[in-house]
Design a protein that fits this description.
alpha/beta; Rossmann fold; 12 strands; Arc Repressor Mutant, subunit A; five-stranded parallel β-sheet; 2 domains; 233 residues; 21% strand; elongated; four-stranded antiparallel β-sheet
Amino acid sequence: MVDDNGLILLIEDEPQMRRFLRITLQGHGYRLIEAVAGEEGLTQAATRNPDVVLLDLGLPDIDGLEVTRRLREWTQIPVIVISAREQEEDKIRALDAGADDYLTKPFGAGELLARIRVALRHTATQHGGEESVFVLDNLKVDLVKRQVLLDDREIHLTPIEYRLLTMLIRHAGKVMTHSQIMKEVWGPAYVSQSHYLRIYMGQLRHKLETDPARPRFFINEPGIGYRLRVDFD
């Protein structure tokens, strides 16, 4: 009987490293999906729902940091960066982008397996996988394709509007304070600049609400923040 310790998505373009990781992971009871480019990895993450992502930063199409940011738009799956980049700034950028851990190449099999076990323990209490397509009444957001549809009609959002929308989707139903939203969407330096939030929330309502003056989705909690309403009963 073969152990099944979990499903690992490996996004790595270097053949020798893929071979080393394939032997190591499969030899310790993990199932493995391999992708050699960032876009392919994002598709595999959305369709296969892996337990952990091992991610190289130097990919042939898009940088691993961008892969991490795009994953974090719709999932909290553990991401362990495996990279030859060893500068502290590189590690900080990866972690700030949403990575959970960072291993500098070359590394030993034992260290990698230990990091994977830690990542799996962190997610052991999560129930089921996260959806890559968010549907709320007549609003549909494909978080992999980055496509927003209202009544099956595609709506163009600016990058900040889209970040604001996906942040609210990640916390759907929960009241988010002004400072929490500002920090997640604009960054820590803008926490006190809440007038930006009012402007962009108004734009989002104008594009996605049937009646922007009487919003159904984007609810203002006076003096606190905003909430993406998910209960229409």
